[in-house]
Amino acid sequence: MINPIISKFQIFRNSLFQLFPYRAGATMDLIDALAATPSADSVVKLSLSDLFRRTYSSLTDVLSSLFRTDLKAPITDEEQRQQTFKVTQLLAQECAPIPEQNNFALFAIDCTANPRIFANKIDDRAIVHAPNHVYGQKPITTGHEYSVLVYLPGAIEDQNKHWVVPLSTRRVRSNQSGTEIGFMQFEELVNHTIFKNHFCVGVTDAAYSTRSWVIGISKQPHAVQIARMRGNRKLYRIPPVGSQTRRGRPQLYGEELLLQDPSVPDLEEITTTITRKGQKRNVLLQRWNNVIMQGSKDKRTHEHPFDVLRISVTDEKGNPVYKRPLWLMITGVKRHTICSKDAYLAYGRRYDIEHFFRFGKQRLGLVSSQTPETFHEENWHWIGLLAYNMLYHTRTLARSVRYRWEKKEIQMLTSAKRPSQVQRDYERIIRGIGTPAPIPKPRGKSPGRRQGEKGKRRPDRLLVRKSAKEDDESSDKLQTPRKKRVLKPKLPHIRRIWPKNRPAPMRC
Fold first, then answer.
1. 455, 444, 447: which is closest to 55 by C-alpha?
2. Which of 177, 107, 157, 77 has the alpha carbon at shortest distance from 378?
3. Res. 245 pLDDT band, cuts 50 70 90
4. Which of 85, 227, 315, 360 has the fewest CB atoms nearer than 10 Å to its CB?
5. Spatial CB neighbours of 148, under 8 Å, sequence gap ≥ 6
6. For 92-117, how does the pLDDT look when each residue is reduced to its tens digit (9 = 90+)?
């Protein structure tokens, strides 16, 4: 009897194999080699894997032909978006069923940096945000930024712990913002995939609590956003009906709501949680309904209210566990269907995407590609995303693989398997299941360059430096170097010397 998990996984791999127009076999071998290689620090080293049955030159061929429909013509941005969205649709179909206790599909959106400090030849390199552990150092680096959308499976099941399902990754260009790209990814997912008929909730950090997200989410009939807010923001109440007594323009904003000194909440709830160490925590949930933020001429946020949630955690003695309370905003038409406790627990799942970023950079080599082409770098991020999906679908088939120097407690005694544990046993799983990639045929050696022919030197690319005024400008202006301010030459200061015999002028 065939295991239904294995049968479903084989169907998924065959469907993925059909989505690659060119070099599909080499692409599948590269994905399997990356998923089975712990701590992939180099792309070229993947050619040494037993699962990669080709030479190292095929690695470049895969990155240059991925998602391309015609090798003779360069791929456009629209064609790349359409091809990658087909992969997103396939990955969305393989997601775990929506948990019945929540009755909504949970997603997380965030940006991560791809440092390219010494890549002077790559295009569209800018200064992006990157956390720095050194106190006092600016959290920035030079390179590219990628917006990632992941699905968060139910955490109650042991087999879904420590896991996310990455569905989409897209590079944020220098003339774009991460919040803009993240909303495009979320909008496409909730409107054009299997989740279009489900209640979808997206959890984000404070960078996504903007006017664009508030207006955009309010236009989605079955989507809600839960975003973190800074504790020093000033919001407003909706003005009550009939409160305006003067003639003139209608009142847009009502009573002020200062998060540093909030008023009496509309709803208040106390719940208890148990930590991993068995400690009891009391959670105070205070909620303000129908709150608006300051808008602008183009973004009329007073027409799109949202809810505000304040979370305070105390121990058994009543002492605060954290220095400051947590502020969340709940945006969307169906925001009232989510209770305060579900919103608090849903936002706690957001940090699983940070675990994916760390695992992808340390174990899947997301930042190991040193290509001078931005198109190849984007394709490499998709290869890492697909390799993580392979580990996710084989998590229930993995066995315990323990090194000699490890303790016995590290063995997989429960059904909860971490990605690093599945990665150790992935090669055995693939050899037993098989691959849709055919056996490579020998093609002979490439003739290479003609005798005496030399390759052209790549030109140096300028570092894009953005400012607040340049965020909305075109990409052509952003890629040009800044005009240096020409200072007028200062004339030398001439000191007036009076003769000795002449008296000095009188000063009043």
1. 444
2. 77
3. low
4. 315
5. 109, 110, 111, 112, 166, 168, 169, 353, 356, 357, 385
6. 999 877 776 678 999 999 999 999 99
Confidence check: pLDDT of 225 > 90: yes
Instruction: Please name the residues in contact with 137: beta carbons below 8 A apart, sequence gap of 6 or more.
Output: none
**Dihedral sign, Cα of residue 364, residue 146, residue 461, residue 380:** positive
What is the token pair recorded at 349? 């799942």
Burial state string for 260-290 with b = 16 or more CB within 10 A and e = fewer than 16: eebeebeeeeeeeeeeeeeeeebbebbbbbe
* Separation CA 110–CA 181 (nearest Å): 10
Antiparallel, parallel or unpaired: β 165-172 and 126-129: unpaired
pLDDT of residue 473: 37
Please tell me whether residue 329 adopts helix, strand or coil conformation. strand
**DSSP state letters, 399-411:** -----TTS-GGGS
β-strands 306-314, 280-292 pairing: antiparallel
Token pair for 66:
């991925």
Rounded to two decimals, what is the model's pTM? 0.87
And the tokens for 144? 């590219």
CB 162 within 8 A of CB 412: no
Is the predicted pLDDT of residue 480 greater than 80, yes or no?
no
List strand residue ranges (DSSP E) for 152-297, in order: 165-172, 200-204, 223-229, 234-237, 256-258, 267-274, 280-292
Using CB atoms within 10 Å of the CB of residue 325, give its burial: 0 to 12 exposed, 13 to 18 middle, 19+ buried. middle
CA distances from 33 to 53, 364, 388, 413, 436 (A): 9, 10, 12, 27, 14
What's the full length of the chain, in residues? 508
Higher pLDDT, 416 or 313: 313
Measured between alpha carbons, how far apart are the two ends of the chain, in Å? 110
| Residues facing residue 141 across a β-bridge | 128
For residue 263, CA distances in Å to 137, 255, 311 come to: 37, 10, 15
DSSP string for residues in 98-161: PPTTT-SEEEEEEEEEEE-TT--SSSS-EEEE----STTS-SEEEEEEEEEEEE---SSSGGGT
Mean of the per-residue pLDDT values for the chain? 86
User: Can you tell me the distance from the alpha carbon of 129 to that of 141, in angstroms, rounded to the nearest whole number?
Assistant: 6
Q: Which of 12-16, 68-72, 114-118 has the lowest mean pLDDT?
A: 68-72
Instruction: Identify the band that residue 354 occupies on the pLDDT scale cut at 50, 70 and 90.
Output: very high
Q: Which stretch of DSSP H or E encloses residue 213?
A: helix 211-218
Q: What is the pLDDT of residues 157-172, one digit of tens each?
A: 555 677 999 999 999 9
CB atoms within 10 A of CB 52: 24
Over 70: is that where the pLDDT of 502 sits? no
